[in-house]
Amino acid sequence: MKFSSVVAALSAVGSAFAQQTYINPVLWYDLADIDVFRKGNQYYYSASTMSFSPGAPILRSGDLVNWEFIGHSVPRLDFKDTAYDLADGKQAYVRGIWASSMQYREYDNTFYWIGCVDFKTTYIYKASDPAGTWSKVGEIGTCYYDCGMLFDGQNIYVAYGNTKISVAQLNNDFTQKSTTQVYSSSITIEGSHMKKINNRYYIFVTQPASNEYVLKSNSGPFGPYEFKIFTKAPASGIQGSGNPHQGSVVDTPNGDWYYLSFIDAYPGGRSPALAPFVFDSQGWPSLKAANGFAIANPYPVNPVPVKSTSGTDTFSSGKLGPQWEWNHNPDTSKFSFAAGGGLVLKTASVTKDLYHAKNTLTHRILGPDSTATIQLDISQMTSTDQAGLSLFRENSAYIGIRNGVVILQRDLTLGANWNTLSTGRLETSASLPAKTTNVWLRLHADIKPAGTHQGVFSYSTDGKSFKQLGTPYTMNTTYYFFIGYRFGIFSFAEQGLGGSVVVKSFDLALGAK
């Protein structure tokens, strides 16, 4: 199943599409800390993923509006800490892939990703094909926090920092050649994106979480830099959300410029918003319209549709699509693909704690509200296994199967340092008919900031008639976890390993079913 812009799925946008206009968000998924660039007629988009694996998803578009997932820059969170494997009793929530940078280097026809992990080490990965296999280039013992990479001919520059902004120059083997502080701000700024436009050097930075500023140098990559506001708390296209901020700028083949930012839109997360901007005679950028993120704008280029975001994944290709990410690194020996389709999840952890259960497979929730339905073959579960569908974040709930009973577990909570505070409480349960082998579990989630914020769980034994289980679960809207709520498919053992389930299908539908 391929994924693209939610806009293509909305009837209101169907009308706008015919007029070759778009509205924000261009993609109602949680895809924050954006870096975007153009190679020819194709645009590429990279985002943060924290402790989800693989990390740093890559999306591609032909028009900056309709996007599809094509891969990940970091195939596994190989950061020299077993916490990323949910091993040794440790976890890595809110660590891992933060704001980072992916760019194409024409000099060697290669795509590169760079990012700081755990505030101490910067990692570099590369690939000849962004949809193909990525490999680690190396590590730098300096944290390029919230970095933006610029390829300027054969020169490699990286802008980074919080309030004090620096520019590093790298050698051709991606080791550090030098680093120079180029600006110190009296306000908090971060999220650097470095560009060279008309022989001027720019570093776009954000003042979290509302304003965007720009540093401009006419003298070279190391400055001196002037500092000026770019966007001041621009209006959002999502009711009840935050201001579009922190993103990257990109041009079209025709020379028009666009700013792809993101909007804090919890409980769903942070979603991309696009607006056109222009440069004045002195090279300073400003939005074409002050409310450019909140209005319909003409497509940057002729629309290039991609397949709908909604649909059914039967896991029949023998590999997971790039829209999927595990909670922490998976145990690859504990999942496989059935010959006739379906994802086999063997229990990989002995635990009663979903937050420490390995091989929980997650999928972003499609906004403004959507429904996920999974079909589970439970015939190989043991009496002490649990498997099901979760509404996954630092406050969670799930519908699951345990010993022939459907259960609703709620109020799972992460506390200080993201350690488990509560494994939740059983709200209610329902017995399944004897010898039931297939169960359908459903979760409808309203992630509109101005919506109900509720998740509603239901189940079926025939895939047609569904019965709600328990009361709706209200999602929180705090930003501290950064990643928004996700659908999570899990299977774990409370006692011994050996059981398994087959996820025969995952269906995603916009709205309620």
What does this protein look like?
- 51% of the residues are buried.
- The chain has 513 residues and is mostly beta strands.
- The protein has two domains: 6-298, Tachylectin-2, Chain A; 311-510, Jelly Rolls (Sandwich).
- 2% of the residues lie in helices and 48% in strands.
- A hairpin with a 7-residue loop joins strand 34 and strand 35.
- The protein contains one helix and 39 strands.
- Strands 24, 26, 27, 29, 34, 35, 36, 37 and 39 form a nine-stranded antiparallel sheet that branches. It has an eight-stranded antiparallel sheet with strand order 4-25-28-38-30-31-32-33, with no helix packed on it. A four-stranded antiparallel sheet has the order 2-3-5-6, with no helix packed on it.
- The protein is globular.
Task: Detail the topology: elements first, then pairings.
Layout: H1 11-18, E1 21-22, E2 35-39, E3 42-46, E4 52-53, E5 55-61, E6 67-74, E7 101-105, E8 110-117, E9 121-127, E10 135-140, E11 148-152, E12 155-160, E13 164-170, E14 176-184, E15 190-197, E16 200-207, E17 211-217, E18 226-231, E19 245-251, E20 257-264, E21 270-279, E22 285-287, E23 297-298, E24 311-313, E25 324-327, E26 335-337, E27 343-346, E28 361-364, E29 369-377, E30 385-392, E31 395-402, E32 405-414, E33 420-431, E34 438-446, E35 454-460, E36 467-468, E37 473-474, E38 486-493, E39 500-510
Antiparallel strand pairs: 1-23, 2-3, 3-5, 4-25, 5-6, 7-8, 8-9, 9-10, 11-12, 12-13, 13-14, 15-16, 16-17, 17-18, 19-20, 20-21, 21-22, 24-39, 25-28, 26-27, 27-39, 28-38, 29-34, 29-39, 30-31, 30-38, 31-32, 32-33, 34-35, 35-36, 35-37
GO molecular function: hydrolase activity, hydrolyzing O-glycosyl compounds
Protein name: Arabinanase/levansucrase/invertase
Keywords: Glycosidase, Hydrolase, Signal
